[in-house]
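User: For my dataset I need records formatted as: sequence, then structure tokens, nothing else. Please produce one.
Assistant:
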Amino acid sequence: MCNLKRMALLILILSSLLVGCQKEASKSDVGNKQEVKRNDEVVFTFKSVKEDNGDLNVKYPVFEGEAFKDVNDFIDKEVKKFINDYHDVKKDAKEDNIEPFYHISMAAYLIDNDIVNLKESLSIYQGGAHGSADEIWTVFIKDENQKKYVQIRLSDIINLNGKCEKDLRQAIYEELKRQNASSSKDVLKQDLALDNFYLDQYAIVFVFNPYEVGSFAEGIYKAEIPYNSLPCIKNNSITKKILD
């Protein structure tokens, strides 16, 4: 169990370093509180929830300002869900003499002033031979009309009807094949969702967790598709922000 926990901690540390070329605002530690600033203004502050000697450990950002209300509401729901899930699993685990852990680390990556990529790094053990180590990404873009950041989905960027989705899956497949993902062909099936992605400065990056396009040992795969190669990209206020 101790080895599993040490491995989980190592995975979280490494995953926080391997984010690609996104730029995160500068950080400064203030006691147990960590502020993230841009142009000397606090963008968000990290908070954490810890229980059972760290078996439950959730670190998450809280943004400053009304413009980030939807982002904060989303994070709050996620935090509550993880806490409730941990407590439910812990109750069931007592009967099997299992010590579960939920190590969750959320981080926000800012692209200019318009895009917030929220990353949830999940290291969870609920029993069995090994735990899980996943990444879940959610994208928020500043809506100038509503003057706030709103969550977007893939369908806000690309037309996903018929040939458009087929061409997109083919492009992702080619990239995963280049990386030698053992089950790369699975991305060609429509039952594999393409809802886990983030926006970089020059590309959209699709994220596939263990068992989605490869074995557990292969880890997480990321397929980067440049914006200028995206099929059937829409012409709207959202795509204007990422193409400008």
